[in-house]
Amino acid sequence: MRHINDLSDLTMEEFRELYKLTSNIIDRPEGYTEACRGKVLGSLFYEPSTRTNLSFSTAMMRLGGSVVGFSNPNSSSTAKGETLKDTITMVSNYADIIVMRNPNEGAAKAASLFSEVPVINAGDGGHLHPTQTLTDMTTILRLRGSADNMKIGICGDLKYGRTVHSLIHFLANYENVQFYLIAPRELAIPEYLRQFMNEHKMKFYEVSGLEPVIPMLDVLYMTRIQRERFADIDVYESLRGIYCLTAAKLRDAKKDLLIMHPLPRVDEIAQDVDDDPRAVYFDQARFGMYARMALLLTLSKQPRIHMPKNIPGRPNLRCTNPKCITRKETYLPMETHRTREGERCIYCDQLVEYRRMRKFNMDYEY
Amino acid sequence: MRHINDLSDLTMEEFRELYKLTSNIIDRPEGYTEACRGKVLGSLFYEPSTRTNLSFSTAMMRLGGSVVGFSNPNSSSTAKGETLKDTITMVSNYADIIVMRNPNEGAAKAASLFSEVPVINAGDGGHLHPTQTLTDMTTILRLRGSADNMKIGICGDLKYGRTVHSLIHFLANYENVQFYLIAPRELAIPEYLRQFMNEHKMKFYEVSGLEPVIPMLDVLYMTRIQRERFADIDVYESLRGIYCLTAAKLRDAKKDLLIMHPLPRVDEIAQDVDDDPRAVYFDQARFGMYARMALLLTLSKQPRIHMPKNIPGRPNLRCTNPKCITRKETYLPMETHRTREGERCIYCDQLVEYRRMRKFNMDYEY
Amino acid sequence: MRHINDLSDLTMEEFRELYKLTSNIIDRPEGYTEACRGKVLGSLFYEPSTRTNLSFSTAMMRLGGSVVGFSNPNSSSTAKGETLKDTITMVSNYADIIVMRNPNEGAAKAASLFSEVPVINAGDGGHLHPTQTLTDMTTILRLRGSADNMKIGICGDLKYGRTVHSLIHFLANYENVQFYLIAPRELAIPEYLRQFMNEHKMKFYEVSGLEPVIPMLDVLYMTRIQRERFADIDVYESLRGIYCLTAAKLRDAKKDLLIMHPLPRVDEIAQDVDDDPRAVYFDQARFGMYARMALLLTLSKQPRIHMPKNIPGRPNLRCTNPKCITRKETYLPMETHRTREGERCIYCDQLVEYRRMRKFNMDYEY
């Protein structure tokens, strides 16, 4: 592995190594306080995200390293009309490793094309957020010992929740995982994930009620219904707060249930659940910091690589996704990967369209 | 001591220990450059405050520690509707000690209920700002040797000036301190402080003129009339600039007078005073940094403590103060301390009112 | 040298020492990772500038030092009406060295009057930006071995481009440098620089076309036409993009040409140039970081000096430049240096005017 755009960039072998390192750090953090001494993390947050930002910064500092960067776009050179490509090239001249959060889908993938140092995707719009899944898996493995043979309930926004999609994908690597997908029709799991689970022989049940399934679960993963993801605010208002886990609803739950949440929560978990020993969502945050320490330590050992800056693509292709980074950074080389539905953008994974070439398209090279 | 919400959280014994440590750091800072190596300070500034923010950050760095956090609310998770309780629980998972500035009164007290690590109040609205008083006392003790037997003039906004109130409270611990309270009627000292001084047999004189009293003083503490504290801007405009200390007015002042100011100043001290050896307000800022080093070093040695997250309060109580943190964070357990005037909110110290319980009040628990 | 307001604050002797140190750091950075351990850089950015900000912060951290400060004015005490003088006095109480970017011309010079620690000018409006020139010279010397006997083309905004003016000034220290000044009439080099070059017997040719001169050049320095510098946006629109260096235009260029740019670029250099080995503008950014390391290391060794805070000036003088720091910070002592055209402001180098003294002018002292 060099960059972490998606968790699929790790082989299971590499993931196991990473988890082993994470466990060692949790068991004796004092052994790693100088592990990244002299290394600099470039932390580029094009949209605010206290949690992820603090988690990465703290992780680097607990390794003895330093952090530079910005936490909002206004204090970035983009204001002067600089391309992402140039910003990344510049920062990779200063830093030994880069973490980026960006509102455009595929931004981290784009950054990795030009960076001389490893790039970690800390969230690219509603697309990917691999270190959240790393956090979730670390929590499950650390507290359950294994992710095999478990019944996991996932509740809330299964349609837009990127952490949910990513978790389901990753759990395909484990044996006999059964899913209870708890959501209203409007927020049901996307069709492509149903196909994915069927192809991988993963058992899943789609239900709309939370309470009935709780007693069966080994893990209950609650999610926030995010205003940011809704085009229509009324739809959001009609759906927010439809699920609220309370102490009362946990009466018949298993004694060793793990109640997880990526945080921040709004009202999907009542505060009277917080003191229940099965509520591990705050521990989850700490495990996430340790997992990021392991990731930073591993990636920061890689040598600097000079990258070609001008990459030929297929200018007659165009991504159909208005939020795709290629719409904003028009010089990006268009490439695709084939899927059943057709060719998909390598950046945001949405379908592409062909267009007749015109002179002005050539300008994209400039 | 565990948290520092108010300076009253310290016993005089603890304060003397702290001052002794501060003095040692001032005398040989090089002995402390690794004292907090590996420790992380969580710096949560919900409103900008360069001075306090830089002072704490520099203090931590001069101890060899690191700093993470934010310096304005926009880059915080609160934007996503997260409660203070959850933000603090998260940050206390990452950091070894927390410093918080918040516009709501009682915010730091609220934070200390949930934090697994020590919380230092760096200002909660117009309520408390203990490290400013620590700065003031360090300056007086360091430059005068003692705070006993002194005549101190306090000039400017005695009504809203929280640093003034806090300083008066703390000086009750010393012998024979005489106060000259210099303010226009509109900004006179609050009645409860008059009572406090009478109860503690502290001599004080209220005057409206600055010049006449200057010759008598051992310490002159000037304050800024803060626009932020005024509801009516006209009242502010009519009062700003009524006091302006100039070199000329110091002609008959004592040779060993200490001229202090919490800073920033606007025009209450003319610049021709700056080079007077008795003007110590800039040294005061440096002493403040050393006092914060001592505080951080002392608190950071405490073990992490798991705190219950769901605390039963008295839902039939309500704070009458619209700026109280309990108005914004409605899940906070209401409790009071008794005073002559009645029961006061444990967060912001304002009076509380009783209300008839209705179903929706129960929601406060959720 | 104590402060770096302009590169002219360095003697050639000092500059050679600095370049020697820079070279040593480039050759073996591992030898300097603890060189500034325990030192604190105060980084005061009154306007955003990712590049310069990151470069200085990274430089300090790679020396083992720490950084405190702010990257935008909103999180600064100036919001509370504090003078630059007080802010600098405060920060110089906390930090061992100060770097400042400020939109007002002469701001760094003003800061250096009051700071107890060295101040580095990281850009004061359109006036000076010495560490950019340091970056440019380091790049030329490192890649060419010498700046003597070279033909350098400077293209784009020669009227407002402060980095261009500064570079021309500094190259007066070298033998047989020939300039090709490539700009449209509206952005031609200022008259005073023509005089400067004539006085110093520096050969220069003013042309409007880029392509014809390329084959002659040893160095081609491209610049961005900056929107910020134009009062009239239409003029900006008519001029932006008139020069665009492409791979095609480099066909007849020398094999060892150096293509430089201060960055960020917009469209003055096409992306198909980026992979040309002669394109060194991204390496330039890295050299800049190393030059700043050398500068920080050198300056941070100086002892703290107490500065008088109240400096008498000539209140009957007034700078004619509306962007001059003396217009905003009216207490600043006015002084001038004589030039052929008349007396110039020591802060922004613009002409001054005499005025009849009135009572209210005296207020400037307060």
Beta-strand portion of chain A reads 15-25%
Number of strands of chain A: 13
Structural class of chain A: alpha/beta
CATH class of the largest domain in chain A: Alpha Beta
Q: Are there runs of chain A of 5+ residues with pLDDT below 50, and where? A: 360-366
Shape label of chain A? globular
Number of helices of chain A: 11
Radius of gyration of chain A: 21 Å
Distance between the termini of chain A: 31 Å
Spatial order of the strands forming the largest sheet of chain A: 7-6-5-8-9
How would you classify the quaternary structure?
Answer: homotrimer
Q: Considering residues with a beta carbon less than 8 A from a beta carbon on another chain, report the largest interface and each chain's count.
A: A-B, 36 and 31 residues
Q: Taking all residues together, what is the mean pLDDT of chain A?
A: 92
Kindly state the percentage of residues in helix of chain A. 25-40%
